[in-house]
Amino acid sequence: MIVMTPFVLLITFIVVQRIVELFVAKRNEIWMKQQGAVEFGEKHYKYMVLIHMMFFISLLTETLLLKREISPLWPVFLSLFALAQVVRIWVITSLGKFWNTKILVFANAKIVRKGPYRFLKHPNYMVVALELFAVPMLFSAYFTAILFTVLNIMILMIRIPIEEKALKTLTEYDDTFRDCHRFIPKIVK
């Protein structure tokens, strides 16, 4: 009999969430490509997917094999995770059919500047960074937290410039986000 520990419950929630997101992303990708969207960054995408898959393997291995305990700071890390989920939903609903895990851009599209995009350029990447750190830290999986934070930074150093170049080439991205930072929220005008 499987005991539904906090770890199993959280991992199950995240895996189910990711599967649902992949279906939404695929549906949006099909629609966007039918409407003429151009895809960028195909070469690095497989590595990004690999990093996210390896994150789960590392987290499961470190937590279960090394018998990691829930962190004494679990309320902080759980709060960070919960905040990330709220922002994730805000991101997806703000972008609607334009939300995707791939870089798909319409020529001359109006850049979305609502929801969390009013405050920063890349809120979805901030959400992922928070999760890759907070979830392992919640279960004292320090190796996973550090390793995948570093790997995420490395892949974003490739992905974000490709995404921004695509948006600058095909849209008025620079004009739209002139007063906005990549990751530091703009709170006051």
TrEMBL record:
Keyword line: Membrane, Methyltransferase, Transferase, Transmembrane, Transmembrane helix
Major subcellular site: membrane
InterPro entries on file: ICMT_MeTrfase, Metal_cation-efflux_comp
Record's subcellular location: Membrane
Listed transmembrane segments: 7-25, 45-66, 73-92, 133-158
Gene3D superfamilies: 1.20.120.1630
Claim: Transmembrane helix is one of the keywords in the record: yes
GO cellular component, as recorded: membrane
Example GO molecular function: protein C-terminal S-isoprenylcysteine carboxyl O-methyltransferase activity
UniProt-listed GO biological process terms: methylation
Pfam families with a match to the protein in the record: ICMT
Protein's membrane topology: Multi-pass membrane protein
PANTHER family recorded: BLL3993 PROTEIN
Name of the protein described by the UniProt record: 15-methylpalmitoyl-4-hydroxy-2-pyrone 4-O-methyltransferase
Origin species: Neobacillus bataviensis
